[in-house]
């Protein structure tokens, strides 16, 4: 089943062909960043005040929202639309990314290819306890959407609750990794988050 639910307010309308990925071209939207990494999007800019407030519901210490120009590996796999932000606070910065796909086949293809790369040459299977990132991260995957949050510290419960408040609960896979520890796997069943993997996804 196709699902297209915007988790954060849509700031810009993008148009491109059905076969092209709708990745925001930040150079067309905001002034150029000197380091080529991100462009600040403060509450003083049109449309960003609401976005900033939205993310501050998760972490009141977030001071600035930027739109990243760095490509992620998952960008290679034909997402219909993606939203990618840097959330800055005094102590840390978080990367928040969403990828919307037209069907579950494309979503699974992107997810499993990412697993192969993240495993650093090791063969990774669903449920394997293995380090998949250099920083803490949380990833949510369902039939048409992948959401990833990464930073030095990630409040797992807060982001899960945030997505649930937006009506997104049917996650096939949820991965959580603290620091450089091994990632832990979860799934949703009857509205509850359970450790391990769903037998239907094997």
Topology of helices and strands:
Layout: E1 22-23, H1 26-29, E2 38-41, H2 48-56, E3 64-68, E4 81-88, E5 93-100, H3 104-118, E6 136-141, E7 145-151, H4 156-165, E8 173-177, E9 184-189, E10 192-195
Parallel strand pairs: 1-4
Antiparallel strand pairs: 2-3, 3-4, 4-5, 5-7, 6-7, 6-8, 8-9, 9-10
Verbal overview:
With 202 residues, this protein is an alpha+beta fold. It contains 4 helices and 10 strands. It has one domain (22-44, 68-201). It has helices spanning 26-29, 48-56, 104-118, 156-165, and strands spanning 22-23, 38-41, 64-68, 81-88, 93-100, 136-141, 145-151, 173-177, 184-189, 192-195. The chain starts with 21 loop residues before the first strand and ends in a 7-residue tail after the last strand.
Please tally the helical runs, counting DSSP H or I stretches of 4 or more residues.
4
Estimate percent helicity. Answer: 10-25%
User: Mean pLDDT, as a whole number?
Assistant: 78
First and last CA, distance: 19 Å
Q: Note the main sheet.
A: 10 strands, mixed
Total number of domains: 1
Query: Which spans have pLDDT < 50 for at least 5 consecutive residues?
Result: 1-44
Provide the succession of SSEs.
Answer: EHEHEEEHEEHEEE
Beta-strand residue percentage = 25-35%
Determine Rg (CA atoms, Å).
16 Å
Structural class: alpha+beta
Number of strands: 10
Overall outline: globular
